[in-house]
Design a protein that fits this description.
By secondary structure, the chain is an alpha/beta fold. The protein is about 20% helix and about 30% strand. It has 4 helices and 20 strands.
Length: about 190
């Protein structure tokens, strides 16, 4: 298997492989162009997102500075607000539902690395998808780690580090993020 095939299969892969690097380099180029767009030219921003992301719903806005590792692995539903300085390390898929808000300084990462020194010396990574449900509010400076699924109608408190799945209809916060309380789903 190539390193890219290993990555897509959810296996350990070499993150500085030429084929893997080429994807990240293209993301650097288009993110730089996106971040250089006129901040009030929302039509141009939307067109660039539609061209470079995997899928984009209606009323999607991502403030600058935005960075990612690929782009094509990011899928965003309708009515999305991504505030300033968001990074999405989308070596694997990031799926974001409808009516989601993400606060400034947030990191969503699908990639992790070995705990062993030899694994890190070999530049190994392993990637797992991240899923964010509908009606989610992620506060500022949150970190969401690989493999996490965040349910529907969830609030993630500012500064939280989400290390495991979050059920529907609740508030979580802290490091690592823990259940704080249930919240009502008033959309039904």
């Amino acid at each position: 298997m190539t390193e890219l095939e290993k990555l897509k299969a959810g296996l350990e892969y070499c993150y500085d492989d030429d084929e893997v690097d080429a994807i990240k380099e293209q993301a650097i180029i288009w993110c730089t162009a996106y971040n250089a767009l006129d901040p009030l030219d929302f039509a141009a921003q939307r067109e660039m997102l539609k061209h470079h992301l995997g899928s984009v719903g209606e009323k999607v806005w991502i403030a600058k500075v935005f960075n990612c590792d690929n782009g094509k692995n990011i899928h965003i539903g309708n009515n999305f607000t991504g505030n300033y300085n968001i990074t999405m390390l989308d070596i694997r898929e990031i799926r974001i539902g409808n009516d989601v808000m993400i606060g400034p300084g947030t990191l969503i990462t699908t990639v992790n690395h070995p705990l062993t020194p030899m694994g890190r010396r070999k530049h190994l990574g392993i990637a797992k998808p991240v899923v964010i449900g509908n009606d989610v509010w992620i506060g500022g400076n949150v970190t969401i780690l690989p493999g996490v699924t965040i349910g529907i109608n969830v609030v993630v408190a500012a500064g939280a580090v989400v290390t495991k799945d979050v059920p529907d209809n609740c508030v979580v916060g802290g490091v690592p993020a823990r259940f704080i309380k249930n919240i009502e789903d008033d959309t039904e």
